[in-house]
Amino acid sequence: MELTDLKPNRGARRKLRRVGRGRASGHGKTSTRGHNGQGQRSGEAKRFGFEGGQTPLFRRLPKIHNFDQVVNREWVELNVGALSALPANSEVTPDFLVEKGLLKRHNDSLRILGNGDLKVALKVSAHHVSAGAKAKIEAAGGSVTVFEVNVVEGKRAKRLRQAEQKW
Predict the structure, then answer these.
(1) CB within 8 A of 109, min separation 6: which ones?
(2) Which pLDDT value is given to residue 71?
(3) How far apart are CA 127 and CA 110, in angstroms?
(4) H/E element, 138
(5) 75-146 is classed in which CATH architecture?
(6) pLDDT by residue (tens digit) across 60-80?
(7) Domain coordinates of the chain in residue numbers?
(8) Spatial distance between the Cα atoms of 28 and 22, rounded to a whole number of angstroms
(9) CA dist., res. 54 & res. 125, Å (int)
């Protein structure tokens, strides 16, 4: 291999747009810059959020301090059909599913959904179980337990609870 054999990766070098070469080219006259205005001038680069001198949106909206943050949970969804491969009367917990390779981490929030059929009785424990999944598990002779999910309490809710305790 020699230096002359090297070529840039496909798509790494873009073909230059040839502008200002007549109307037939499609990029003639105003050279794709539009008519008189800031965008047509040389060195035209408006900063992010610039709205042409109008007060930008981020300055029109109020500053919001100390708002209660919503904790987004990443759910791992598992269908009832996937559980049918497990042995009968086994206790299905996140730890058990990690051992079987159906779940990556034991601390993931597990949601059981009702897609598929279940023919074996299982004792399922999860953070959330849909109504359809619960019906299918119980119809097969199994049982369902839902873990308590700890909700992060916001400042406002905490103050209200404390005020109720005072009275």
Answers:
(1) 73, 74, 75, 76, 127, 128, 149
(2) 55
(3) 5
(4) helix 131-139
(5) Ribosomal Protein L15; Chain: K; domain 2 (3.100)
(6) 988 876 655 555 567 889 999
(7) 75-146
(8) 4
(9) 56
